[in-house]
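Q: Convert this sequence to structure tokens.
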Amino acid sequence: MSIEKIAESLVSQALYYQATDIHVVPRSTDYLVQFRIHGILTSHKKIPIQMGERIISHLKFLASMDIGEKRKPQSGSLQSYFSGILTSLRISTLPTAKAKESIVIRILHHKKILSQQKLSLFPNSMRMLQSFMKQAHGLVLFTGPTGSGKSTSMFTLADYCSKQLNRRVISLEDPVEQQNDHFVQVQVNEKAGMSFHNGLKAVLRHDPDVILIGEIRDAETAFIAIRAAMTGHLVLSTMHTRDAKGALYRFLEFGVKHHDLQQTLLAITSQRLVKLRCPFCGFECSKYCIRSQTMKRTGIYELLHGQFLQAAIEELKGGDIISLSLSLPKLIAKGVALGYISEVEYEKWIVDEKNIDKRSRTVFY
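A:
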């Protein structure tokens, strides 16, 4: 079998198992291929060193990376059909101490947008987020760690704005993660002069109702998001923080003023993807489960909005410390008590010194 077919087969197998990442890790005598399936890293197979190096070189070539450079980390992307499915791959290489490269392939599925009902374990959270999509202007921020479903939530709600509310949506992304035919997507390209700053000016002249900014990762992007919200547009974006209040402190680090936050922020949501109890396997669900094509994970959302959001901004100035009635620990504990998720998920996501037995006997309403 040619190296092209072997690489295509590897990606096709990852798609079959609904993997989000492929890891090809060099070892002393071989390469280990691992799939991240529903958040869990599982070993897939071992391949000979020569085959592993050829696969890495082939993928680097497809992603327009320098196949001769093995001493520096590189990144690239490609889009192709695997098993008849249009799929985007984001590829990252890293030189290791074994004089071999490690490669990680992030799989971005071009699949149908999820329905709002499937996004959240508790429907009221999604109804609240949908209500914010009807606002004329302001900033709605989705926060959480990598792999918590921030982009999926944001794109699903943007699709809702476009199709259900008939609003014009334009996205500004680096890179474009999920292609969608229902709104205009702009790829940031610094080399071609399309920076976030220049892109926003162009987007504002294109008569948008909703502006989607892929991620707020630095001060420039933070000011761009605030400025867009101030100009009378609804802005959706993501940020990496531990909880909803943490996003406010990140804005202060970027130099955003308190009054700008009060004028623009509509809501901040912090979310986690949690594994659901399988009706066949229980909490230890196998990747070979007959339920493999149905949803195995769903989101839990901590929402900071309204008077709680304003009180949190006042807390930044030295005001009273507030606590949310429906915080992430309480919402995940509720899912545990109702039997939807395991206590292992609570321990995975929540840092809590309380006794597990006490948590499991407590129901939060």
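The chain has a mean pLDDT of 87.
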